[in-house]
């Protein structure tokens, strides 16, 4: 019958224990009992003794069978419960409709009171319309015929579907569902009618506009007048669906995370694991079932990173967040660096119940960082400590010696004849000698000592915790013996000796700088003997050391006092005699020693680092000279400068050079950079990189002193060069009598085969010039044509050459 038909029902909800949990206005009016006095009482308190016993006996079958139960019962006045009409007798039908939760478990009943048989006020109110009863129930309420049409429904169903009461009269239950869900709903309806099953199904109730709302729908079979009906309710589970979707999203995020994630329960001493994600399994090698229930410390690397683990333990005990790094072991025993962030998770009462740990495997990062730190602090060729690490280790050794009242020995060592090895056997052989020497030195000292490569073929050793000078002497003698053995290269024994200087803390200095300077002075004296000698620093060496310091100070003053200046030597085309450019040559007008040529101060400047400010001055003055020539009408007259490895190995060297050219507004092609062939051989990778950057900038590039040593032609042909300059040795081998120079001719041919402009330097005779011209050398420079000129004289030379042309 439609919901609008009159009824005489009152209803309430009782839970699985038969306790009353809702009490509607109809019940209150029927029994004359307010909800305050009846809620949470068992339904049996409303019944007579016989009725209470019958309900108690039938309750288990109600739970198990899930079918509606109808009883004719007498109602009694509950003891201690106020009632509006205590004298009124009340007899009615009691219908109990079982209900189920989302998991299909019995959750209670809807109790409906009907067919009241007294004329009391309670009975009259109990005969109120069924609409009033079912509209107070949570969710939708419906009764279906076996053809799935509606007999009864509540307003909530109308609101959810958008159907009017008239439309509901002709609607079928299947009309309220999507086509994909209709077979499922139809099957469940048939199960109720045909087998009397109690069903629970989740589906979307579709409104007239096509929008769906997720519902948990229930259905049970009831019988009335010999006919079966389906009675059921529906609960809106949208919120539960949203929560489930959020949980599934979070679970997918945990599964997709690249970092390992674990959740542990907050316990006492141990915090057992409850969950790990797939990344945890991949990183550690432990499966979920192998990790659950264990404290995460089972992966700890024994004896490692105890301080970090103590910090973690303290944070867990204090229930606070922490980030630490330490080493763990994978299942296969392999160590890995674990960057771990632990965050406490509190419940609704603020009590910490769990911890979430996020593990980031930073093993590769740690290894890369360690590798970079090693590269920063170690020599690339030998793997020894470099200059930076040397100073740090020496200062640490001095601090330790101060505490322990012990000695520190600083040993300076310079190989004898190393340049000859490079020149005769090549740079690869020289590198092999250096690596062999490095291995010997390392094997001759203790692990606590330091072996460093200072530069080139110069080594420094820091011998720590020396108990006596006699002990130091024995160690130095062992070093000397290890250097006395030849190095075998390509089955050839190469003698490698060394001059050794020793300084001892605190006798020869109190600082790292003082000790290195003293050891250097002692080595200088050892080298002067031209033997493989060992010299300990003494007071008479101080004079030499101080002289070197004074010379270094005078170099600094030379820059500050503008004592340095440039001369310019012209380069001449050997075919037509035209001036093709100039080379800038540095001179020093020393305040005490007068005019100094480069050979008397540049080697020292290279050693003490003053070559860098000298080079900056040369570049500035050269650019000024190029600008002067341009103003005089000679805009395309390139000028070359010599650049040492110490200069071009500085970071951003080419960028600095470009900035200077921009400041003087010069085209890069007006500048030529000459790099010594021996410098290129020391670090081929760096040389190729710098020359490549210069080529991209547009600066001309030349190899200086070509042929003076061993030339690596395979390396040279890969370099982006524009010029090559014959060394002095090759030019001076040209015989004035025979007018022959086999070395010069060979080098000219090599240069042309490499498509380079060949320039000969230090040309001093007519015979040398004629030979070079005959053998198609492109350009020359030297005293035979012109001595180096001042800037004014060079400009006048160009003007004179132009006017006579």
TrEMBL record:
PAS domain location is 126-196, 246-319
Leader sequence segment = none
**Sequence ranges assigned to domain GGDEF in this UniProt record:** 406-539
Instruction: List the Gene3D superfamilies hit by this protein, alphabetically.
Output: 3.30.70.270, EAL domain (3.20.20.450), PAS domain (3.30.450.20)
Q: Where is the EAL domain?
A: 548-802
Cite the PROSITE patterns for this sequence.
EAL, GGDEF, PAC, PAS
Q: Which InterPro entries does the record match to this protein?
A: Biofilm_reg_signaling, EAL_dom, EAL_sf, GGDEF_dom, Nucleotide_cyclase, PAC, PAS, PAS-assoc_C
Look up the domain of life of the source: Bacteria
Q: Where is each PAC domain found?
A: 320-374
Among SMART domains, the record links this protein to: EAL (SM00052), GGDEF (SM00267), PAC (SM00086), PAS (SM00091)
Provide any one GO MF term from the record.
catalytic activity
Its protein name is Bifunctional diguanylate cyclase/phosphodiesterase
Q: Native species of this protein?
A: Massilia psychrophila
State the taxonomy lineage: Bacteria, Pseudomonadati, Pseudomonadota, Betaproteobacteria, Burkholderiales
